[in-house]
Amino acid sequence: MEKLMQYVWEHRLWNPAGMATNDGKKIRVIDPGLRNDDAGPDFFNAKIEIDGYLWAGNVEIHYRASDWKRHGHDKDTAYDSVILHVVDKDDAPVFRSNGERIPQMVMQCSPHFTERYAALVDGKTELPCKKVIAEFSPLESAEWIEAMAFERLQAKSERISQLLTLYNGNWEAACYVTFARTIGFGTNNDAFERLAKSLPLQLLHKHSDSLTQIEALFFGQAGMLDSPQKYADNRYYQQLCREYSFLKNKFSLRQPEGLIWKSFRMRPQNFPSRRIAMLARYVEGGFRLMANLLDANGDIDKLRSLFAVSLTGYWANHYTFAGEAVAPDASQAISRSSIDVILINTVVPLYYAYGTATDDYSRVESAIAILEQLKPENNRITALFLNAGMKIDNALASQAVIQVRNEYCNPRKCLFCRAGHKLLSVAAYE
Q: How far is CA 143 from CA 148, 385, 414, in A?
């Protein structure tokens, strides 16, 4: 509740009529102050006129006035600078450490405000701000999309920066883990990232001339070769088990614990085993994807060609270790639409992170240009916002609404979302 009250105070969403202290002195807020998320009063450097006199200082907000003493503020000199105590329930007077009484005000809000807020954070509607989104002007939508797309891109870039720190500035290693995570396509992202981290590129490059050994390393570390007797009639599987047993002992490999591979409701082409085989194909001959991405210089056709590989050997016509052989066209490792997903989630963040780290703004511009050229992603989230009236005409916009959904809607951070803010702002004055 205090978070909501702080939000109301910060954005001036109170009812200005009849604002007064609990002893009847008229209040006019000139400046609500700066929000403080650290220790000390909630707002610094506020300017408030009380009964015709201008006060400059800090503001503290509590749901109940009695929380002032309960939190020990009456003995804390850090709170002596408070010029106004804002509350919802006035159940006690408040004092500074020297015994001086502090002006106190019950903040008045429109009854519609709390109703709208409850509907946002507690409601069962999948998108309670749908009506407000439909009313956004083209300029408001464009600004919101740009802000959210950059926020999502920055978060992905930060993940890459963390990988660079982990791998001592090695961009190929960071690219390798980023790419591996992407081919999990949401369902198996974490599992693929942990798998990649368990097999450093330096180790894989020692065996990059043998696809069988690379596959043995990946499938073994993935926990898919732990039962040699399981597919006794599968010669390929038995060969991988022997190779992995040898390599595991040679390099003292430890499998990632608790890897869970999900394939429920997946098309066979997207099974984890197929994606692992695909990752092995990209490592075969040496993994130099980052260098190739930079050489492509933002050309979408060249970038797509980097990921258009075919599976060979066993995986050219199999989906699992247990399955029967399927049509030869199963050799295509990945579809055009899936390649575009890789461009969005691997290439774009790498370009952005690289451009930021090297002060090469042309790379940052290339990252944005790719998102603007690619078609929007087609998924449950984009469908939800399209139905609400959002214009989603490229991947920049689809990334934006995914950011809104994942980082604001799902954790119910409606107070910090533009749609939620607009809905509450309107309600505050109804």
A: 9, 16, 18
d(C-alpha 330, C-alpha 87), whole Å: 66
**Residue 54 CA to chain centroid, in angstroms?**
44
What H or E segment, with its residue span, contains residue 174?
A: helix 171-182
Question: What CA–CA distance (Å, rounded) separates 106 from 20?
Answer: 8
Give every CB contact of residue 429 below 8 A, 6+ residues apart in sequence.
110
Q: Which two tokens stand for residue 184?
A: 């999990």
Query: What pLDDT does residue 107 have?
Result: 86
Q: What is the DSSP letter of 210?
A: -
- Tokens 């999502």 locate to 152
Residues 6 or more apart whose Cβ sits within 8 Å of residue 141: 390, 391
Give me 280's structure tokens: 């092995």
Residue 430 has pLDDT above 70, yes or no: no
Q: Which residue has the higher pLDDT, 330 or 228?
A: 228
Work out the mean pLDDT of the chain and round it to a whole number.
92
Concatenated DSSP letters of 269-328: GG-HHHHHHHHHHHHTT---HHHHHHHHTT-HHHHHHHH--B--GGGGS-SSSSSPP--G
Mean pLDDT of the 391-413 span: 95
Q: Are 294 and 202 in contact (CB under 8 A)?
A: no
Q: What are 55's strand-pairing partners?
A: 48
Cβ-contact 261, 191 below 8 angstroms: yes
Matching residue, tokens 């490792």:
333
